[in-house]
């Protein structure tokens, strides 16, 4: 399974931003990327690249100039982790397949699927479903552990 560094770092940065009273620095202004980079031990240059996508997706608002920085684009309770991953344009991949159509060539040159294709595609769907059900506020307040539901419990419901 592959959840990229871009996705992990974007989530870390957004959690840091949300922890600062919804995007407020101690002085009441927006939070700078330098502040986030220092507290999360991330590269400032890398964060700059990630925040382009986050801003484009409306997940953060930016203010330029002296005293500028970033604030959350909407409340943390309304922002799911899947939105953050999508904003940095990183698909969640558990298989080598580029899409669900297939990952191999058949003898006629068309596409075919490997023997474990459906297993890995379902894992991708489950990861996406999980990340779509966890808000930024859930992560900030430590409400993530125990959220995954065992398949047998789902069948019993």
From TrEMBL:
Q: Which Pfam families match?
A: Rrf2
Is DNA-binding included in the keywords of this UniProt record?
A: yes
Domain of life, per UniProt, equals Bacteria
Could you tell me which NCBIfam families the record lists for this protein? rrf2_super
Q: What is this protein called?
A: Rrf2 family transcriptional regulator
For this record, an example GO cellular component is: cytosol
| Cross-referenced Gene3D superfamilies | Winged helix-like DNA-binding domain superfamily/Winged helix DNA-binding domain
SUPFAM superfamilies xrefs: Winged helix' DNA-binding domain
Report keywords, A-Z. Answer: DNA-binding
Q: Name one GO molecular function term.
A: DNA binding
State the coiled-coil residue ranges. none
Cited PROSITE patterns: HTH_RRF2_1 (PS01332), HTH_RRF2_2 (PS51197)
Show which residues constitute the signal peptide.
none
């Amino acid at each position: 399974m592959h959840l990229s560094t871009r996705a992990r770092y974007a989530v870390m940065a957004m959690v840091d931003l949300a922890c600062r009273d919804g995007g407020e620095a101690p002085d009441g202004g927006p939070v700078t990327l330098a502040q986030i980079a220092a507290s999360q031990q991330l590269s400032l240059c890398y964060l700059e690249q990630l925040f382009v996508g986050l801003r484009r997706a409306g997940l953060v608002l930016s203010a330029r100039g002296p005293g500028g920085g970033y604030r959350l684009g909407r409340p943390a309770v309304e922002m799911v982790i899947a939105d953050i991953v999508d904003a940095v344009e990183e698909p969640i991949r558990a298989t080598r397949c580029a899409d669900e159509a297939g990952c191999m060539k058949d003898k006629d040159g068309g596409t075919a699927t490997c023997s474990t294709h459906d297993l890995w595609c379902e894992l991708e769907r489950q990861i996406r479903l999980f990340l779509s059900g966890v808000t930024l506020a859930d992560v900030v307040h430590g409400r993530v552990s125990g959220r995954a539901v065992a398949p047998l419990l789902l069948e019993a419901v």
